[in-house]
């Protein structure tokens, strides 16, 4: 019988496919330098003389910059002539492509475009505007305008146009909406596409990432892992790495132009007339009836109502307080009965109460015909309607109301700062006029916020967000002023993060090095390491440093394994012949936005890792499967959500385990299977009984009776997990009985939602379900108030591997040291540890852990002292 050679999949690297020779260091440097990326340039150049001379100087520059980029965003403050930017961008794009163009508008913004076209575009620069609701209405000779709804419902296909812009692009900020997916997917085929908005929320990173994804600047999933650390408890919360913040904003500045005043673009441009009206903000608290405060989850009755306690509590507070809030609104209106005002609200019940209290007010709501809604907005903008009532989420974007109105009353407040700030800036805008005459000094915009006593925390959060919003907006303008609009300046700053200063710290039993692991491995002599164990970066899942040398700072799996191709031959070179290399890894979740499928899938990163190392000369020995907590995983990804599976069970896969792949460097003498320096065990220490259990591929049950669901539910909370494991491993598994036990715990309110209390345990020796994840260096880090590692490696995994594949005194290497877990465990087992780490903070803390391990290993225990004393006494006798 002949054995066919292993055929590797086409996407995997072959030995020799990846540049890895140790002598060719320039290839690695070139690879790293190619990582430095700014927004791609995908547009065309236009002669400044072709740009409409009537436009403001800062808009002319923004037009030239946007057309050259091809796919750009303009974040221009209210009243800085953003509308004219849209019009000129599409006028010149139509000339270049000889194809029709499209501007997509929010409800109520059409009037501003027609007015600006008439005012600023005359003579040979005149433009024809055509408002359409269906493709059949398209005019190839005009700039076509349409509402978001027409695109979302498929009546207009953006692919029919040579260029498109999206006004008030914050509509695209929610990537879970039909609007985003419909527009983004169809517009992907449009060569020139742009976004403009007056209120990008600099605190809402997801919104900026949505714009980047829509403009094809960077995949959303890639951007998330490049700049942000994810909340291990909540999948939708992003926190920017402190060391990545500067790089993130420089990256944004390479494709988005922030303008608060003309001088932001060029300090020679005049800011005369660009004075925002001041805000006169008044907060009105109405009392809360605390008699129906409700109860906590544990049944404890609340003393006071708290709208921050949850969605249901907030909604109930809104309903209960509506009469008091309407009364306060009437009191405010009575101060100036004839003033023009907007009455902002969030709930349908609030709208109906306003209509009843103020019959003369015109209300705008979702079930109205589009034409009727738009007519009401235009009439209010032009002063023909005195009071308008509407929801910020519906009409808070687009319309300009500053010409006849300076007063807004928020009948209620909510957590959505974005909606509130948009609503505020319908009035607080540049170019404020009243009765057709410009004012030398803008009139203050009055804002009255009505809230309840139970909503004080909502108010505090709103005020904090407002402050941060202003700070971040100012920061972005400062970046433009500092670096200008040339990407070369931004790129030069980012390139500086390539440098790393090597630091080495040695102890009696360890060596820790702060350096790029590729460069460091090249310094080490061959065939000197007894065992290599590491948890490799999970491709683009996380970035640990701002350095482009970081393996997590890669575009995709292909890019990641290209960089790994420089390291893998060095690992093989330094490992002693016949010795073992253990790799900890895990498969990865692929977001629906990244795959284009609309649902999450799994990338077999573990399999690709396995094949990669086989392709680089390592012999595969096998894989240990490490079971993880499926409940915790779902809290991180929402991939396995209970509610979503009840809606459609076809979307659910399985929880992802971790893997420990074992490889071996072939020994020098291929006629014998032993390592050049074998790991020798004595039969006294490694018994036949232990060998049989280690080698067995299955286990037997003791046959004990299993706990009944009622018995399990009656156990104390802290004892349930241990008892479950003991009995789970002691009898034949019964899935329905497992479900019944879990349901009994749920009925007793003992089944937590944030971790798996009674998971499925395995008796198979290659499936590890007893790894204690609390036993890691992150526990020590947390106790000291220091930064925790993003992906801590549990001690249990490391300890077992070191004990099995090494002998005392041997050298254990981890090229991705992190907090130095592997050297730490090696020291405690009387081995020598060697760790390499690029993150300076992890390196510093890791050195401290290794020193602590040395002290611990050198300190004799009470039993050591007793044994020593006994041995001394025996020798004396």
From TrEMBL:
Its EC number is 2.1.1.72. Coiled coil: none annotated. GO terms for molecular function: DNA binding; N-methyltransferase activity; site-specific DNA-methyltransferase (adenine-specific) activity. It comes from the Bacteria. GO terms for biological process: methylation. Residues 529-844 form the DNA methylase N-4/N-6 domain. It catalyses: a 2'-deoxyadenosine in DNA + S-adenosyl-L-methionine = an N(6)-methyl-2'-deoxyadenosine in DNA + S-adenosyl-L-homocysteine + H(+). It is an enzyme of class 2 (transferase). Residues 1-21 are annotated as: Disordered. Keywords: Methyltransferase, Transferase. This is site-specific DNA-methyltransferase (adenine-specific). It comes from Pseudolabrys taiwanensis.
């Amino acid at each position: 019988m002949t054995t066919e050679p292993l055929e590797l999949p086409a996407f995997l690297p072959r030995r020799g496919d990846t540049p890895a020779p140790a002598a060719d260091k320039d290839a690695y440097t070139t690879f790293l330098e190619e990582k430095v990326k700014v927004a791609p340039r995908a547009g065309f150049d236009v002669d400044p003389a072709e740009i409409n001379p009537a436009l403001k100087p800062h808009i002319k520059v923004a037009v030239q910059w946007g057309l050259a980029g091809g796919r750009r965003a303009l974040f221009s403050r209210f009243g800085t002539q953003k509308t004219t930017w849209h019009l000129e961008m599409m006028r010149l794009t139509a000339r270049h492509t000889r194809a029709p163009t499209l501007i997509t508008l929010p409800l109520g913004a059409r009037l501003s475009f027609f007015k600006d076209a008439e005012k600023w575009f005359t003579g040979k620069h005149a433009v024809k505007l055509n408002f359409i609701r269906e493709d059949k209405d398209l005019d190839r000779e005009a700039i076509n305008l349409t509402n978001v709804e027409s695109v979302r419902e498929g009546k207009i296909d953006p692919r029919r146009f040579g260029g498109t812009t999206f006004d008030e692009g914050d509509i695209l900020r929610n990537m879970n909406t039909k609007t985003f997916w419909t527009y983004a997917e169809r517009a992907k085929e449009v060569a020139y596409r742009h976004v403009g908005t007056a209120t990008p929320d600099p605190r809402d990173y997801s919104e900026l990432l949505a714009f980047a994804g829509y403009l094809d600047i960077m995949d959303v999933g890639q951007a998330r892992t490049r700049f942000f650390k994810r909340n291990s408890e909540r999948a939708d919360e992003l926190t920017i790495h402190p060391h990545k913040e500067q790089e993130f904003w420089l990256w944004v500045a390479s494709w988005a132009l922030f303008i608060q005043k003309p001088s932001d673009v060029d300090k020679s441009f005049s800011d005369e007339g660009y004075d925002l009206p001041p805000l006169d903000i008044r907060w009105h608290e109405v009392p809360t009836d605390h008699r129906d405060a409700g109860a906590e989850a544990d049944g404890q009755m609340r003393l006071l109502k708290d709208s921050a306690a949850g969605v249901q509590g907030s909604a109930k507070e809104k309903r209960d307080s509506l009469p008091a809030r309407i009364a306060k609104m009437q009191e405010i209106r009575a101060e100036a009965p004839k003033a023009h005002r907007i009455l902002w609200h969030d709930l349908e019940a609030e709208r109906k109460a306003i209509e009843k209290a103020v019959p003369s007010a015109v209300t705008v709501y979702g079930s109205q015909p589009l034409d009727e809604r738009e007519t009401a907005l235009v009439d209010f903008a032009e002063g023909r309607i005195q009071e308008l009532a509407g929801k910020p989420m519906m009409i808070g974007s687009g319309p300009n109301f500053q010409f006849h109105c300076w007063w807004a009353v928020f009948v209620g407040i909510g957590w959505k700062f974005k909606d509130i700030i948009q609503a505020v800036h319908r009035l607080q805008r540049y170019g404020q006029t009243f009765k057709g005459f410009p004012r030398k000094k803008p009139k203050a915009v009055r804002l009255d916020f009505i809230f309840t006593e139970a909503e004080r925390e909502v108010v505090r959060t709103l005020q904090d967000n407002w402050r941060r919003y202003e700070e971040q907006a100012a920061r972005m303008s400062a970046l433009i002023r500092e670096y200008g609009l040339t990407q070369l300046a931004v790129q030069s700053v980012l390139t500086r993060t390539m440098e790393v200063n090597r630091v080495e710290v040695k102890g009696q039993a360890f060596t820790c090095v702060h350096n790029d692991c590729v460069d460091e491995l090249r310094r080490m002599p061959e065939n000197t390491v007894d065992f290599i164990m590491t948890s490799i970066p999970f491709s683009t899942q996380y970035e640990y440093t701002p350095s482009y040398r970081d393996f997590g700072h890669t575009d995709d799996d292909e890019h990641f394994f290209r960089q790994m191709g420089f390291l893998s031959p060095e690992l093989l070179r330094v490992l002693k012949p016949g010795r073992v290399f253990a790799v900890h890894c895990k498969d990865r979740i692929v977001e629906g936005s990244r795959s284009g499928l609309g649902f999450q899938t799994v990338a077999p990163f573990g399999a690709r890792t396995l094949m990669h190392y086989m392709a680089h000369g390592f012999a595969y020995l096998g894989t240990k499967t490490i079971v993880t907590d499926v409940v915790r995983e779902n809290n991180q990804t929402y991939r396995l959500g209970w509610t979503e599976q009840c809606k459609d069970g076809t979307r659910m896969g399985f929880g992802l385990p971790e893997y420990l792949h074992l490889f071996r460097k072939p020994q020098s003498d291929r006629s014998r299977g032993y390592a050049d320096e074998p790991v020798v065990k004595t039969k006294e220490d490694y018994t036949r009984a232990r060998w049989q259990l280690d080698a067995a591929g299955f286990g037997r049950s003791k046959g004990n009776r299993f706990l009944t669901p009622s018995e399990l539910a009656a156990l104390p909370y802290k004892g349930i997990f241990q008892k479950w494991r003991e009995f789970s491993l002691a009898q034949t598994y019964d899935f329905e009985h497992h479900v019944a036990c879990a349901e009994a715990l749920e009925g007793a309110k003992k089944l937590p939602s944030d971790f798996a209390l009674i998971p499925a345990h395995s008796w198979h020796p290659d499936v590890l379900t007893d790894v204690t994840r609390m036993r890691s260096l992150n526990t020590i880090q947390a106790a000291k108030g220091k930064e925790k590692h993003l992906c801590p490696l549990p001690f249990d995994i490391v300890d077992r591997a070191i004990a099995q594949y090494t002998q005392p005194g041997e050298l254990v290497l981890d090229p991705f040291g992190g907090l130095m877990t592997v050297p730490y465990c090696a020291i405690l087992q009387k081995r020598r540890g060697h760790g390499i780490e690029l993150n300076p903070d992890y390196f510093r803390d890791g050195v401290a852990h290794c020193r602590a391990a040395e002290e611990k290993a050198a300190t004799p225990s009470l039993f050591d002292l007793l044994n020593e004393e006994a041995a001394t006494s025996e020798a004396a006798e």
